[in-house]
Design brief:
Layout: H1 12-62, E1 70-75, E2 78-84, E3 96-105, E4 111-120, H2 132-135, E5 144-148, E6 154-161, E7 169-176, E8 186-195, H3 202-207, H4 211-214, E9 220-228, E10 231-240, E11 243-251
Antiparallel strand pairs: 1-2, 3-4, 3-7, 4-5, 6-9, 7-8, 9-10, 10-11
Length: 258
């Protein structure tokens, strides 16, 4: 706009150019802010994921049942029966022992199913059980929890190193002592077992766990976590003699094979 007697306002072309440039700058700024927010959401989401997974693992040696009202009754040589108790208590388990938990990662979904697993406390001969065959592990929808991830985070791949075999569930179980009949039926430490499961028959899969399967323990587990193709992380769990230790690696695609 020129000054003096001939002063005039901005032309339509000048106004349009100004608005166009301002609009481009606004879009660029919003994309940058959105990218930073997505990155922050992803990092917060994967850290929440690790924290919750660690909580579920740590529940196993303490024998923690979900806040539910259920009764577990033993069956002579068979699988225990789990029924709603309607007693107002967290659970009645005098006939059963708490064996552990199974974490089930549904492919490319934001939900993780967590099944508490129980078994018979005594064999048909009245001795304390010393293995999965005698315990007859089982679970039910009554003992199932659901964890929903945050920040758009989704577990996408699940690997067992060094075999490279793909699984979608991990079983964390209290170790049994060496023999039935004397002392505690369970020893310190965790047995970590990779499993292949689907939502439709999760009870049958858990009931199929026996001492042969339990002998195949994982050396290293990697759960790949993603938000998008450019935002990935790896939850790495390495079983130890007395438990399981996890770590979280946040990085670009390729971290721990993710």
């Amino acid at each position: 706009m020129k000054g003096g007697k001939g002063a005039r306002g901005y032309t339509i072309v000048e106004v349009m150019m100004f608005l166009a440039i301002t609009g481009v700058l606004f879009v660029v700024a919003m994309v940058a802010i959105s990218g930073q927010q997505a990155k922050a959401d992803f990092q917060q989401g994967v850290r929440d994921f690790q924290s919750r997974m660690d909580d579920f693992i740590n529940d196993v040696p303490t024998g923690y049942f979900p806040q539910t009202d259920a009764t577990c009754s033993s069956s002579a040589g068979g699988v225990p029966s789990i029924t709603p108790a309607n007693s107002g208590n967290q659970g009645t388990n005098s006939d059963c022992i708490f064996l552990g938990k199974v974490l089930h990662f549904t492919d490319d979904d934001s939900e993780v199913k967590v099944y508490s697993v129980v078994g018979n406390r005594l064999t048909t001969q009245g001795n304390e059980v010393d293995g999965f065959d005698n315990a007859k592990p089982t679970t039910s929808s009554v003992l199932t929890e659901t964890y929903t991830t945050k920040g758009g985070v989704k577990p996408s791949d699940f690997k067992i190193d060094p075999t490279g075999t793909n699984y979608n569930a991990i079983g964390f179980f209290n170790k049994f002592a060496g023999s039935a009949g004397g002392g505690d039926s369970q020893a310190s430490g965790l047995t970590v077992i990779p499993l292949s499961m689907d939502t439709g028959n999760f009870v049958n899969k858990i009931e199929a766990i026996d001492d042969t399967v339990a002998a195949t323990q994982a050396n290293k587990l990697v759960v790949c976590i993603k938000q998008s193709d450019s935002a990935r992380a790896a939850w790495v769990l390495t079983p130890k003699a007395t438990g399981a230790v996890s770590e979280l690696i946040i990085g670009q695609a390729g971290s721990e094979g993710c």
